[in-house]
């Protein structure tokens, strides 16, 4: 089936389905259009298709290419057939082949991918061209400057009115262009001051032509917040000369900001224009929120409402924008303004931070958890720490170093690194002494936990768990971390790292929710895997005294330890990633920067430190030495490829389309992951725990992936010379 699509408006509303006869495939696309609220037309012949298209100019056309005896689909799309071709009617577009699949959800997913992928990207390109065409054709003089007041553009009308040519102005600062002496001395600074505050400026401005004559202009400049928090200044229709200052709001700079894409700002802000509605006061809202028992956010809103009553208009308008931001339920989730341009980031966000697109019926993914694995028979006599074979002991000699190679241990232990590394690290931290449990119990527990990791997973297996345990132990030895945590916190962190992905199926939460799995139903599509890991870990531990490491601790201490472990495991869920990072920065990093030492001892902040610790340990791969980083990137990519393959086989929504093993660029996916998830988090963690070696690895790895991407390579490594 040949699919090509065109785009004329931003909202995708018109579909043309060209099928020679009705069948399950055409019905599937009809249902998908209805579900997506798209209007669609059906055509059966080339003549009716062309007539329908010319009448409505559909945004997207789907042509049946299976029944060539009815019409030649490819010939219909060739530009050399003027009388029966729609291709000459557009200047650009996309061609796409869709393999026959009558599953309704597959059709629906295909339409969504088209809408949120190249279709919107094409629209933005056209919109940009349209804007500059309008500027070129405008009869009013327009001048655009950068934030440092360097002239970027003048239109032909400006040249005609002012007498200058573009080449005489582009790249020059405003102060280099003669201005009329009739202007007040501080006029330009007044304009800039208004713009920086987000205010509108309107007034009389005198400009000097090239021949020396002064002309009076009525100028109105209105800042409008665009994507990513960047103000764009729009002129009023009466404006003759417009100076547009493109600038970024002041944000806290990052030590490693050179890694971040300029177009991606995870701290983007939301605002609205001055349309008069901001003059309203919210006394009614204050009454609505006057509750007997107030939540903290309600108190904040009430304070703002009260402050607005006696505030001058600019302050009241600013507080209006604050209230709009506070009313969203996703206070800590940044608005990804460039997700349409960056499908890798878009897919990572959609795949890791959502609970999937729900299926209506059929093809349920059965994932049973009723029978956890027991210890394999060949492991029933566990080894003592002192009896570890020399070859394995040798691979663990530098386990306290960040550059420790977990893959050497994986090979030496025949894919059972968690038991051996766990024995050594738990012994180093005195876990058996704290829990008052025999070493044999700890050994049995480690082995049964490892037995419940899936060695068939390329990434989420016991080697990943051992790697996270290693990173956790490394972080616990940092001075600032030791000052913050008690011994029970350290034990909880080590146990949480060990069990945090137990029984992981190698599929994301989105996949399980889309497939209607037993786990998704059990946990109501909310933190499905993380809830399962925590629950199963305690089931495994407490069902048999031989591996119950909690058997001998006091009840209250067990409750405290259990709660800390559960909280840390749940913190590895990515939907609250930005909430955890922002709370850590605002509650710990900023007070510490102001020398407020008491922040390290409060119970609430200890929780934030533990969450941040396990989160950083869980996704620290980009901060590992380069060869380890590359290996982990290959493993996670393979797991995502396998998920995409299975989604296609089962007709499930493909939650991360870019992870197609035939087309995926692994460097691009790593760059997006570092940009969106890693940079801010490790900047904050480094500021707290002092980790210069990790940050150096992160810089090196980012440059490595960037270098591969610049060479248009999609692989893990460059080809051999």
TrEMBL record:
CDD domains: HDc, PAS. This is Phosphodiesterase. Residues 267-277 have a biased composition (Low complexity). Pathway: Purine metabolism; 3',5'-cyclic AMP degradation; AMP from 3',5'-cyclic AMP: step 1/1. Its cofactor is a divalent metal cation. GO terms for molecular function: 3',5'-cyclic-AMP phosphodiesterase activity; metal ion binding. Coiled coil: none annotated. The keyword Zinc does not apply. Residues 127-198 form the PAS domain. The active site is at residue 460. Its EC number is 3.1.4.-. Zn(2+) 1 binds at residues 464, 500-501, 618.
């Amino acid at each position: 089936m040949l699919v090509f699509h065109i785009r004329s408006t931003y909202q995708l509303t018109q579909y043309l389905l060209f099928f020679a006869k009705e069948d399950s495939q055409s019905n599937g696309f009809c249902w998908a259009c209805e579900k997506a609220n798209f209007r669609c037309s059906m055509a059966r012949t080339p003549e009716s298709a062309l007539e329908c298209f010319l009448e409505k100019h559909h945004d997207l056309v789907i042509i049946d290419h299976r029944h060539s005896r009815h019409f030649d689909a490819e010939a219909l799309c060739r530009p050399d057939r003027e009388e029966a071709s729609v291709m000459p009617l557009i200047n650009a577009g996309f061609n796409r082949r869709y393999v026959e699949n009558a599953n309704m959800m597959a059709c629906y997913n295909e339409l969504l991918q088209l809408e949120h992928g190249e279709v919107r990207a094409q629209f933005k390109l056209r919109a940009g061209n349209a804007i500059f065409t309008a500027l070129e054709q405008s009869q009013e003089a327009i001048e655009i400057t950068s934030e440092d007041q360097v002239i970027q553009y003048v239109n032909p009308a400006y040249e005609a009115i002012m007498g200058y040519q573009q080449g005489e102005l582009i790249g020059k600062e405003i102060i280099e262009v003669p201005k009329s002496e009739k202007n007040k001395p501080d006029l330009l600074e007044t304009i800039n001051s208004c713009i920086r505050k987000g205010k509108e400026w309107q007034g009389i401005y005198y400009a000097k032509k090239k021949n020396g004559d002064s002309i009076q202009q009525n100028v109105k400049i209105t800042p409008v917040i665009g994507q990513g928090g960047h103000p764009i200044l729009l002129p009023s229709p009466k404006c003759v000369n417009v100076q547009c200052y493109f600038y970024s709001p002041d944000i806290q700079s990052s030590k490693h900001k050179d890694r971040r894409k300029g177009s991606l700002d995870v701290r983007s802000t939301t605002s609205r224009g001055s349309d008069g509605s901001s003059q309203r006061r919210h006394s009614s809202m204050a009454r609505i929120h006057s509750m007997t028992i107030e939540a903290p956010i309600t108190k904040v809103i009430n304070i703002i409402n009260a402050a607005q009553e006696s505030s001058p208009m600019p302050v009241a308008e600013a507080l209006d924008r604050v209230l709009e931001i506070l009313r969203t339920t996703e206070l800590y989730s940044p608005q990804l303004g460039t997700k349409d341009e960056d499908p890798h980031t878009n897919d990572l966000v959609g795949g890791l931070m959502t609970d999937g697109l729900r299926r209506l019926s059929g093809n349920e993914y059965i994932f049973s958890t009723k029978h956890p694995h027991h210890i394999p028979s060949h492991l029933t006599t566990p080894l003592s720490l002192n009896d570890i074979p020399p070859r394995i002991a040798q691979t663990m000699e530098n386990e306290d170093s960040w550059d420790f190679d977990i893959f050497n241990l994986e090979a030496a232990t025949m894919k059972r690194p968690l038991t051996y590394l766990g024995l050594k690290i738990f012994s180093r931290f005195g876990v058996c002494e704290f829990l008052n449990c025999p070493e044999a119990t700890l050994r049995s527990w480690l082995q049964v936990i490892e037995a419940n990791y899936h060695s068939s997973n390329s990434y989420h297996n016991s080697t990943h768990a051992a790697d996270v345990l290693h990173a956790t132990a490394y972080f616990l030895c940092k001075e600032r971390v030791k000052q913050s945590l008690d011994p029970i916190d350290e034990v909880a962190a080590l146990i949480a790292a060990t069990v945090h992905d137990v029984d992981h199926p190698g599929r994301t939460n989105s996949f399980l929710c889309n497939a209607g799995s037993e786990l998704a139903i059990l946990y109501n599509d909310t933190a499905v895997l993380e809830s399962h890991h925590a629950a199963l870990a305690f089931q495994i531990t407490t069902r048999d005294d031989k591996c119950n490491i909690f058997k001998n601790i006091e009840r209250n201490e067990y409750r405290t330890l259990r709660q800390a472990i559960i909280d840390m495991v749940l913190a590895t869920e990515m939907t609250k990633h930005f909430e955890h990072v922002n709370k850590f920065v605002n509650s710990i990093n900023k007070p510490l920067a102001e020398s407020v030492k008491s922040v390290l001892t409060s119970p609430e902040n200890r929780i934030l430190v533990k969450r941040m610790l396990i989160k950083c340990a869980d996704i620290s791969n980009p901060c590992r030495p380069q060869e380890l980083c590359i290996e982990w990137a290959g493993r996670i990519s393979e797991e995502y490829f396998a998920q995409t393959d299975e989604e296609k086989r089962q007709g499930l929504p493909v939650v991360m389309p870019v992870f197609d093993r035939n087309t995926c660029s692994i460097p691009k996916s790593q760059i997006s992951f570092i940009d969106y998830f890693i940079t801010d988090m490790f900047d904050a963690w480094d500021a707290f725990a002092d980790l210069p070696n990790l940050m150096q690895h992160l810089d090196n790895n980012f440059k490595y992936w960037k270098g591969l991407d610049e060479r248009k390579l999609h692989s893990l490594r460059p080809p051999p010379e």
